[in-house]
């Protein structure tokens, strides 16, 4: 007899939550409940509800809805300008969730939560590669560390366990996520085509040739389910990527070819500055091609692109630990996956075909 599980997905409309829900929707042994600020813009059988994760009273009002939850998938995040405040707020989001489930969900068994390259210091533009889960922490603050320490302490002697997953740069179908590499590249290439200019890597030749890796959201979704259901993963941290490495110099010509445009030599410039006057161009493309009217600001975060594309040191993870523990889904060709994602974005009317 198949064991039934009830997932609670927090951050349900982001790139991680959306793709996890889409994955769990295909699994007959899962019932999915999701927390999001607004209604999802994708088809799902999940029960979606809005909760204030910073308010214990909001959770208390949802006690009946939460009572069947067995597994938490925590991908919620709130931005703050100050690092200490960022940590305080995001630990509170997690703590309020866990404490509510301890109180209201007798079958609560596991928390899967997301970290990322910032656990290694990726935000500084340089870290030891390949990054391993056993690498020492950088000098604090870092809200990933504080969330992890909270779970380590709070789970002692309890019936529930936790697992941390560390994807690198995320790519996948989602709108409104500030760090979605696929949307960024797709919108940039679409604008190059519309403006009749070649696609250029917007940074230095050195950055163009670094070794990097990415994480497809579909791979991460499978990893989140795997970690949640395997007792050996309790209290562990796993790097999760597509399983390969690449250079941007290999990717950009393939992207240009997919859009039917030339790929020219790299040239350093600021996407943030260059895109300041491009909203009317995108609006015209939206009307001409019948795209969803999201607007440039919702589709792509150019500051994120400026940071990612200006990293001049290798940036990739060692994923052998997850493989040793039994996760065997990290075998994508990232360049092919990026091209396939461009086609998906076109099919979904997010960028012009």
Automatic annotation (TrEMBL):
SUPFAM superfamilies given in the database record: NAD(P)-binding Rossmann-fold domains
Cross-referenced Pfam families: PRISE (PF22917)
Domain of life: Bacteria
UniProt signal peptide: none
InterPro entries tied to this protein: NAD(P)-bd_dom_sf (IPR036291), PRISE-like_Rossmann-fold (IPR055222)
Domain PRISE-like Rossmann-fold: 66-352
Protein name stated in the entry: SDR family oxidoreductase
